[in-house]
Design a protein that fits this description.
Blueprint (H helix, E strand, L loop, with lengths): L2 E2 L8 E3 H7 L6 H5 L10 H15 L3 H33 L1 E4 L5 E3 L4 E2 L1
This protein binds zinc ion.
Length: about 110
């Protein structure tokens, strides 16, 4: 059972990471087909805000403490989601196929069997 492109039905498929690796270093196609960038969240700042918020809450500054606690937690969750989305995009890229005929990129599970 061979796999074919879901768009043009051509069976000249290649793993996207292999295709990108075969491109010349100066190729403009790296921008279009290259691996999505990593995103490393800097969680120290939101964690510090949460810790300071707890200290302020304990010491009686309820409004400022709550503000820092909620703000820090919100930023932390947002950064975490951004990191997960970047990891997911990289994982999808790693299991994508490239069609040498049309040329489309698609997930391996979206390829049609011939
Ligand atoms: Zn195709």
């Amino acid at each position: 059972m061979a796999l074919a492109c879901p768009r043009c039905k051509h069976d000249g498929l290649q793993d996207l990471p292999d295709f990108v690796a075969s491109l010349p270093r100066e190729s403009p196609l790296h921008g279009k087909y290259g691996q999505p960038p990593e995103y490393k969240a800097q969680l120290l700042l939101p964690a510090g805000a949460v810790a300071l918020g707890v200290v302020l809450l304990i010491s009686g500054s309820v409004a400022a403490g709550l503000l820092l606690l909620i703000g820090g937690a919100g930023v932390g969750v947002w950064l975490w989601r951004k990191t997960s989305a970047a990891e997911e995009a990289r994982a999808r890229w790693a299991r994508s196929l490239y069609c040498r005929a049309c040329p489309a990129t698609f997930l391996r599970e979206d390829a049609v069997a011939t």
